[in-house]
Design brief:
Radius of gyration: 20 Å
CATH superfamily of the largest domain: Probable tRNA modification gtpase trme, domain 1
CATH topology of the largest domain: Gyrase A, domain 2
Shape: globular
Helix content: 10-25%
Number of domains: 2
Oligomer: single chain
Order of helices and strands: EEHEEEHEEHEEEHHEEEEEE
Structural class: alpha+beta
CATH class of the largest domain: Alpha Beta
Length: 306
């Protein structure tokens, strides 16, 4: 059974009578679409239109709860506090939700269903199990994320971390084209480079938010010259690996932003993200790993059009 202790997440709670109005003016998703049965993916951007953080957002009573990557909560609080002084809101590091557990595949789904009863049906849907929150995530395999409230910890104490499945969870994020911001890359990329403008992280029908004018201009006026690509290889990716390729007699190097290596006992390939020139997809340019020149890299399709 594929059950994963997801230790790379933490939470920010936004509370106060103006919580939804405040967030509506700061985040890329439309908070008016929030309800007790839905979650939203979104991002916080700076004035230059660069992504500070991505997040998953839910209503929790009258508050809003943002699930983000480890190390990002304090950064989010510091950024948003600059604007919070003009609103009746408070931002705090959330500690009531003590664990995040991932359930992957049919067996994981069946096991979770026995605990909580009916499960959310569509991607992004949520269900409360007392104070614990269950969210359905996109994936080639059925995938659920459970935010365990400390008052409900007794229901989940028998579930232990299974490290071998962390790679499987990361692979699902890669296959879905989902890239998360960490402290290492905060305020480094625009939403367009990370495909956030075409994956639903940016809602172009909502009103203004920090960085909105620049983000909208890039989306409507200019064709993206670079995008986040999913690539595969039979080689093992290391922390020092980068992508090398030549174009118009010029050598290029691209960082590997996230990866999941192939499993030892399967025929799967290693998968990874890199930001490359968009025309790469329609050419026969050779791509290779910088530290393994015998490597062969292939551009893989994503569940959305680049």
């Amino acid at each position: 059974m594929e059950i994963i202790e997801l230790k790379d997440y933490e939470f920010v709670r936004v509370k106060g009578p103006e919580t939804l109005q405040f967030l509506q003016g700061q985040v890329t998703c439309d908070t008016e679409k929030l309800n007790t049965e839905a979650s939203l993916v979104g991002a916080i951007c700076n004035l230059k239109g660069q992504v500070v953080s991505d997040f998953n957002l839910i209503l929790d009573g009258d508050d809003c709860l943002l699930r983000t990557q480890l190390g990002m909560a304090e950064i989010i609080i510091e950024i948003l506090n600059k604007y919070a002084i003009f609103s009746k809101v408070e931002l705090i590091l959330e500690t009531d939700f003590s664990r995040v557990i991932g359930f992957l595949g049919q067996e994981g789904k069946n096991y979770l269903s026995k605990i909580v009863g009916g499960l959310p049906k569509n991607d992004g849907d949520r269900k409360n199990f007392s104070k614990t929150i269950v969210i359905r995530l996109p994936g080639e395999s059925e995938r659920f994320e459970v935010w365990v409230h400390k008052e409900e910890a007794q229901y989940w104490k028998s579930i232990k971390e299974e490290n071998e499945f962390n790679n499987a969870w990361n692979r699902e994020d890669l296959l879905q084209g989902i890239f998360h911001i960490t402290p290492k890359n905060t305020e480094e990329y625009t939403p367009q480079l990370l495909n956030y403008d075409i994956t639903g992280v940016i809602d172009f029908s909502k009103g203004c938010y920090t960085g909105q004018e620049i983000i909208a201009r890039m989306h409507y006026r200019g064709k993206a010259k670079k995008r986040l690509f999913l690539l595969s290889t039979n080689n093992v990716i290391t922390k020092d690996s980068e992508v090398n390729y030549a174009n118009a007699e010029k050598n290029h190097k691209a960082k590997i932003l996230a990866y999941a290596n192939k499993s030892k006992n399967s025929s799967s390939l290693s998968l990874f993200f890199a930001i490359l020139e968009t025309k790469i997809a329609n050419t026969s340019i050779k791509l290779e790993l910088s530290d393994q020149q015998d490597s062969i890299l292939k551009v893989e399709s994503l569940p959305y059009e680049l």
